[in-house]
């Protein structure tokens, strides 16, 4: 693996287990640049060797002198490594081939840390990489399904009602969430020519990593991601509030409440995101704002999400009690509009609420020391359900909804009927044109009965022949008109 990239990656991942990676990353990059500058100064000062040699170079990991062909060069482990004290007596080896070119593969086994914490961090980094692949697939599938579902609900005007309007806003919040996360990951993604498996990291790649960590666009993407997550959770809360109002409130003026729902779903997140942005800019203006150095600031975002999840969970418990009491009293039937709506909507709340409540009190602080397996378990469940959540919502609220299916079926039948009518019209119109164009022609079935005027010299004076000509002429006029 690329040595420099591995160091930067591990330091970035270390933030997940509450290490001061922001300061560590800055210190590492400063020491790496000092090592690079020192190497360039030494290269410029030392006299050049004559003949065929492997030229001195800095391969972004270690500084190499001139070397004779068919030799193995050894230099001390770079002193910018965070674990240099542990490997200060080790060496990194590189072969100079017969053509006077340094090999692309180096042996840096003596410069690798043997610290169990570093080994665990490498394992943690590999697991997070697999998690990222998993949630990228989930968000991509959810994004496609949600865009299609939102298009269906917007297109069919007969589906526009309070319930579906809330669903459409929920879909939009899921789309915004998936898009912002994928955009943020894309901005932090390595370039196309960035190969982690290579042993040499180019200077362009290192500079790219540092610049993108501090780019304004990356921070804007982080702000949008935090807002979309908050908006998504609060539109889920709106779904729970609306469902509860259907079951509890007898008279509901839906038009008056929809404006309040929009303020909760789209307006409430701004109340928490704006203070978080100000605090991050003033006190934690580090890198891409991904890391939480002071966890107290992170509660500005975490507390409203936790509040929405808990309220939705209590609503879910209350609705379950209402439905159980109705079932026991035999007052609930599938013909009841509200309870049919509750049945279709209730399937979403356990999926969204319960899995979040299970780990709501498993905080980052409680898993920062020794509870790595619990942290990975919580992280996997959160990432899995959150990434595939939009796909399940699109299926439950749109694709398997009987009302939506009925409208799509009606649209399909009308379209097919229109096509059939158009085809029938084209067929009838073409036949009428053929009949008009062929009106002056004598029907072929009667041609055999007519005498051949070109080959006969006799006059057509027999009564049968005259009657045949008259009848054929009359038939021709009838076909024409």
Automatic annotation (TrEMBL):
Record key words, sorted: Cell membrane, G-protein coupled receptor, Glycoprotein, Membrane, Receptor, Signal, Transducer, Transmembrane, Transmembrane helix
GO MF term list: glucagon receptor activity; peptide hormone binding
Residue ranges, annotated region (Disordered): 461-481
Start and end residues of each G-protein coupled receptors family 2 profile domain: 38-115, 131-401
Annotated source species: Sinocyclocheilus grahami (Dianchi golden-line fish)
GO biological processes: adenylate cyclase-activating G protein-coupled receptor signaling pathway; cell surface receptor signaling pathway
Compartments where located: Cell membrane
Membrane-traversing stretches: 134-154, 259-279, 299-324, 345-363, 383-400
Membrane topology: Multi-pass membrane protein
GO-annotated cellular components: plasma membrane
Protein name (record): Glucagon receptor-like
Xref: InterPro entries: GPCR_2, GPCR_2-like_7TM, GPCR_2_extracell_dom_sf, GPCR_2_extracellular_dom, GPCR_2_secretin-like, GPCR_2_secretin-like_CS
Family membership: Belongs to the G-protein coupled receptor 2 family.
Primary localization: membrane
UniProt xrefs under PANTHER family: GLUCAGON RECEPTOR, PDF RECEPTOR-LIKE PROTEIN-RELATED
CDD domains reported for this sequence: 7tmB1_GlucagonR-like (cd15929)
Signal peptide: 1-22
Keyword Cell membrane listed: yes
Biased composition annotated in UniProt, kind: Polar residues: 469-481
PROSITE patterns on file: G_PROTEIN_RECEP_F2_1 (PS00649), G_PROTEIN_RECEP_F2_2 (PS00650), G_PROTEIN_RECEP_F2_3 (PS50227), G_PROTEIN_RECEP_F2_4 (PS50261)
Keyword tRNA-binding: no
Pfam families, A to Z: 7tm_2, HRM
